[in-house]
Input
Amino acid sequence: MTYLPEWKIYLWKKLLLQNEVKKVSYMSDFLFFSQDEQRRIAVRRVQDNIDSINDMAVKLAQGVTIDVQQSKETPSKDSYFTFEPEGVLAALIELSESKALNIRNIEIEPEYLKYYQRTREKSGENLPGINAKESTDDFCGLTENLYKKIEVGHRLSVLELSAIRSLPIYNHLSFGISVNKSVLKKKLNKYIHAFMDGDLIRPPRIRYFSYEQQKLTIGPSLKEIANKYGSRNISVTLQELIKESGLYSINARNFRFYEILFALEEVGEITITDIRKEEVIISFAKELGRDKKDCLIKKFDAPTPGLSVGNLAFYDDGTLRYSGEIVKLSTQLKDLCRLFMEKNKRLVTFDDIRETIIRADKRKSTPNTTISKYVSALRNSLKIHFKKDVLISQQREGWYLDTKR
Output
């Protein structure tokens, strides 16, 4: 068995995590990264490698010994963020053939079909694009029988879907999908066990760390993240794990991020609750592994406080509490509260808050009035517990936290 493209096992896991059953799906539902996002990640990878090389040059000049693993990059077409419609459609058909999911009600989107019919009537063309190899017509390349079936709005079989998966028309498909989770989980687990046993064949000139080596490397990183943010529903990314482990970004090419996390879930050390773009949302088991010395992190019998200001404290289970009582806040407001607590009695500016709770691509367009609304929401929540205002406004510069005032 060979290593699968990262995006394929990403797709399998997303299907397994899917709770909502949609009556109608479109190809866009399975393209988890847009073209712009794919380009940004690819550019960032190059920049990360450049930064790593520059950092290594400085350390070498200081006489520091550096261990950098040699390997080619995983081909970009196989990367977790590279979702191309043709490949995804082929993967869905493959899962259908293995009974891992059922594809039904396959048809051209009704609105697009009506538009196409009107356009063809106006142009007066007769069956444009039939068997043609090059055409601007989205129906280009269809056989005459299949064209006639689609043009009158008849549904297609999975076999007919296979015949058009490389044609432009797939952009306008709609279909229903039901996942046989037991079959798909068995399929994924078979692959993950092959990864854990070292039975997967690597692509030419590419080296991946073994399962055991990857576990030893990211184990301390996961532990550090858990110590910072708690053991429940925390987000992790490959870049974060590499950074926490003290390795360089250039070493990331030797890791199989999704395989190692799925393997840790398979052996009961973590639970994966969601995958959001580059983030994997995980929770740690209360006791990870049968042998305590092999656990990634200690057993969490009772939450213990970490960062605290007065009676307000973040606990290692990820909760924020006031005198032991959980303060219910959204994730963004929790992050905002942590920022104020870390800068206790010191000014927190509008820009500080943008950097902390606003996505990078939204920061420039987020006005100060929006930032003020977040602060106001946090202020009102804390006021319920402190019975007073503890977020003090500093004219137009920002705010500071003072629980003693």
